[in-house]
Amino acid sequence: MAIKKQYLKSKPICKVTFTVPAEEAKKVAVVGDFNNWNPKGSTLRKLKNGTFKGTFELPKENTYEFRYLVDGAYMNDSEADRFQWNDYAGTENAVLEV
Length: 98
Fold this sequence. Notes:
single chain; mainly beta; Immunoglobulin-like; 5-stranded antiparallel beta sheet; 4-stranded antiparallel beta sheet; 9 strands; 0% helix; CBM20
């Protein structure tokens, strides 16, 4: 898994690219604070090598909790900036700081 951040000088946003190696998966989405935990519109595209990838524009100077939804199962990104306990989910969520 990988997270790449590209800060834009002209706008107060950061382009964040999420990459998830999941050759056997049919569908991968990234859900979090930035999209109200809704997988609609946040599905990652499957590449020929079996990796799923997607880029999202997020407002800078924010912190977001997120997880991947891989064929209906939640997963954290091991490359996240940090992890934070979430009482609602009853587990740790990955945290992205942009």
